[in-house]
Amino acid sequence: MKASTRGRAPSRPPLRLDLQGLRGLGVILVVFGHLFRTPPGIFSALDMFFVLSGFLITGILIDSHAALGRVYFVPFYLNRVRRVMPMATTVILVTVGLYYLVFSQARGKQVATDGVWAFLSAVNWHFTAEGTNYFSDTSQSPFLHYWSLSVEEQFYLVWPVLLLIGLLVAARSRRPQVVLALVLGAVTVVSFSYSMWHSTASPTAAYFSPFDRAWEFGIGGLIAVGRPLFARLPGWAGVVLGWGGLAGLFLPIFLLRYGDPFPAPWALASVLLTGAVIVGGIGRSTKHLFLLDNRAMVYVGDMSYSVYLWHVPVLLLLRPFITPDTLGYYAAVIAVTAVVSPLSYHLIEKPMRYARWLMTPPERERASRRPRDHTRVRQGWMAVAAAGAALVIAVSVSSHGPAPAPVASTPLPQLAQGAEEGLTLLQQQQRRLGDALRQSTYPALTPPLSRLGASRWLTDQKRVGCATVDAEQLSGCRFGPAGAKRHAVVIGDSVAVAWMPGIRKALEPLGWSVQQLTRLECGTWKLPSYVYDDGTPFPKCTEHHRLFTQYVRREKPDLVILASAGAEVRNSERPGYPDAKTVAYQGLRGTLAELRPAGSRIVVLGAPAGTSDLLDCVTRFGTPEECVTEPGGNSYRHRQGESAAAAQASVRYVDTKNWFCVEARCPAFVGSTPVFVDGAHLSLPFSRQLAPLLRQTLLGPDPAKSTS
């Protein structure tokens, strides 16, 4: 390297139009995936960006080091700030502000918390800590997609330092390229090996982890190191690699299935195929790759960052106004994204790349040779400032303005005492549900929206009972009067946990003791193996089944209550499992066969019919009708399978659908009480409200006979 080149800003490498087109294709596939949630492997398109980033950034850093020496990462980091932060910050501010305006203040606060983590480029760790499953239907954060941006920024923070170490080591060698490739290759292999283990051991955490993704960037970096070698490939090889890689990228989209270990090893297909496209265009024209190298796709690639940032907030913010999963909804999401993305790109993203106060002197010198559009730069700053002002106004309006919907000024009409005398408990419950379905305004909910949510619910549950109960916790999770003559045990997953307040209120006043023997995410069915919701092996569930079977056989309780979530039928989605109804039937039949020899009376509580999450469906522009739902297909299959198994074993099965729904319409609140805290788990007060129904169901019409 010539000394005279030191200190000069490196010249910008020529733009690879095929790679810009590949960005465009990638963002189109990602938007399609978030919109339609199918096919299962479509999110492998996101891995294209990691490989592209590794290739482009490594090449830029190598060239910058040649021009600037060891301080090469200073202009790099400043460039990243100009490139990433203005648009990311604008979308965060606008989205949080709109959530405060459209949804409740409680929902706005939740989204604001996610937004802070997104701004800090650490939202992937935030979602990991919360146990967020990226593929779950209930993952509703408008900043969920920011996880990949956080991973990229964390990579950009560390990679220049690792590369500098590699460059310093390589500088002492006669073959610096080989040495640098070995250093980066070692990092890549270590990351891939770690991800091979972690993707199976903890797939949810692995999906968000930069340590599991580093090998994808690393492969792109290795291609950048080998540019001189790949540039010597014959022209026909470039054509084969380009077209072969592009065509092959669609294979994992259709072949990957839910539960396949990811990112390692299955992301390797997308990574290598993306690498093939990159290698195919090094040092040669890519005009032959016309599906990528064309004006339309290149333009989409140019503004892919804006498209990526906006599409998820748009998708979620339109749901209160347009019925989701309809043609009009899909068209609206695409149309709004297609409008705001180019506006943001031209008014904010592109001008802010040339904010000269975030440039080094050599960069400013080079930028000064280009005509500067002062108007566009001012517009960029004004747009970011306007987004900040809009957020302040939105939070202020939300804090001091009207409630999420018109609050009912009078309580729900109550039936006169005489009107209920001839009604059964179930008929009375149906009346209450009917009253809730006729409500046109939201009552002042108790607990309020700010007290809802799965994490808050679990904290409250642990204050009044237990959640996951191991052998050493049995005595601490037995409730009721000392010396009780009657003893019941409750077995199941988090849905069984949610039933506990009502069961305790039903039985304890009659002198029963209640042993809680639940484990979160571990249903009651006996299966060959168990998995968490994210597909992770769940061996502790096998141990828990052994524990409660031994307990029932040893203690011989008077009553055994079994309850599982309707989502347990997802076990049937694993390869080799039968249909959902059959797995419910076989699973419960196996458990009943193990418990019946104890001679205890067994009651199977059917899974509650879940509703919408109030935090997502309550808006300032909607009515309670927006929160009314119908039981899904899994709910029906769950009931059919369990009821068939119970009938065969001569065990009572309780279909609870009519406790929550009237003619397949299920309200989200009854009176002023939320039915569920998150659409799946009963709120504590509503569970207790069901105590009379539970008492009659578990003990019969004359509970006194069950206490003698």
Percentage of β-strand residues: under 5%
Outline, from the CA principal axes? elongated
Mean pLDDT: 86
Cα distance, first to last residue? 95 Å
Q: What is the number of strand segments?
A: 8
Strand neighbour order, sheet with most strands: 1-3-2-4-5-6
Largest sheet: 6 strands, mixed
Helix content: 55-70%
Number of domains: 2
Number of helices: 29
Unreliable stretches (pLDDT < 50, length at least 5) are: 1-5, 398-419
Rounded to an integer in angstroms, the radius of gyration calculated over CA atoms is: 30 Å
Class by alpha and beta content? mainly alpha
Labels describing this entry:
two-stranded antiparallel sheet, 708 residues, mainly alpha, 57% helix, Rossmann fold, 29 helices, elongated
